[in-house]
Specification:
Blueprint: E1 14-19, H1 26-39, E2 45-49, H2 56-60, H3 68-78, H4 85-96, E3 98-99, E4 103-107, H5 118-132, E5 137-141, H6 147-151, E6 156-164, H7 168-183, E7 187-198, H8 204-216, E8 219-226, H9 229-236, H10 249-262
Parallel strand pairs: 1-5, 1-6, 2-4, 2-5, 6-7, 7-8
Antiparallel strand pairs: 3-4
Helix pairs in contact: 1-10, 3-4, 4-5, 7-8
Length: 265
């Protein structure tokens, strides 16, 4: 694992997570959060792409070999003689880690197929808990349902960024996600609503919907992120968002949000 400078990691990583309905830009914000943590030297970071449509690596300019899903599948039939299933999974997870400057990346991969994965998921949670002790932050880019938080036994989250697009359904889904964490018995220190890709002319109806969602849930409003041509150009040209200058409008807006909720530790 490569870091920017020698940093003493805590006994257990602080967990950051993204959630929101599909297409809101969770993965884009995850990439910007990784850039922020590296730029602020809040490292080392372990990023886990837990979306079935995994593409965080593409926004970071990284190639992925094996996924955690593939390792979990192979464990059911390939465990060598003389090696426990826990040892097998731990070995392959360490091999699956993609190393970068200041952060590492793991990809969950495909959803579970037929058959029981209870033992595999239990071992995966144990291995991830041990692995997290080597990092300052563990960032999980989730699907909307956030089942992976339970699967990885991530029950105590520092900050949950709930991402919405500028739509009624996006804000409504964000409010539902805020309520869902209680049902999953996940303790969240702060749930932050971020509305992404907003137009220059902000519709009054959108601000009303955001205010209503915040008033009816335990969401805290984090801010609006403007639709960004620079981010669009990076994505369409398959360039890493890590290359964007920090003064880029959307990056600076994201950094102000992260400063507000993460600099206090």
């Amino acid at each position: 694992m490569t870091t920017v400078q020698a940093v003493v990691a805590p006994s257990t990583a602080s967990i950051l997570a993204m959630a929101g309905k599909g297409g809101t830009g969770k993965t884009t914000l995850s990439a910007l959060l990784i850039k922020y943590l590296v730029d602020r030297n809040m490292v080392p970071v372990l990023a886990v792409d837990a979306d079935a449509n995994a593409n965080l690596n593409e926004l970071l300019g990284l190639e992925v070999g094996r996924t955690l899903g593939e390792i979990r599948d192979s464990m059911k039939t390939e465990t060598p003689v003389g090696m426990t299933k826990s040892q097998y999974m731990e070995m392959h997870i360490n091999q699956a880690i993609v190393e970068a400057r200041g952060f590492d990346l793991l990809v969950m991969g495909q959803p579970e197929g037929p058959g029981c994965y209870c033992m595999a998921n239990s071992i995966l949670a144990q291995v991830m808990e041990g692995l997290s002790r080597s990092y300052r932050y563990l960032l999980v880019d989730n699907e909307a349902g956030m089942e992976h938080l339970s699967r990885l036994n991530l029950r105590k989250i520092h900050t949950l960024f709930v991402v919405s697009d500028p739509s009624y359904r996006g804000v409504l889904t964000a409010a539902r996600i805020a309520d869902l964490t209680s049902a999953l018995q996940v303790k969240v220190r702060q749930k932050v609503l971020v509305v992404n890709r907003v137009p220059r002319q902000m519709p009054e109806a959108l601000t009303d919907q955001v205010e209503e969602a915040v008033s009816k849930t335990d969401l805290v409003f984090g801010g609006y992120l403007s639709a960004s041509e620079k981010i669009f150009e990076c994505e369409i040209n398959q360039r890493s968002l890590l290359e964007l200058p920090s003064e880029t409008d959307a990056v600076a807006e994201a950094y102000r949000i992260f400063d507000r909720f993460l600099l206090d530790g």
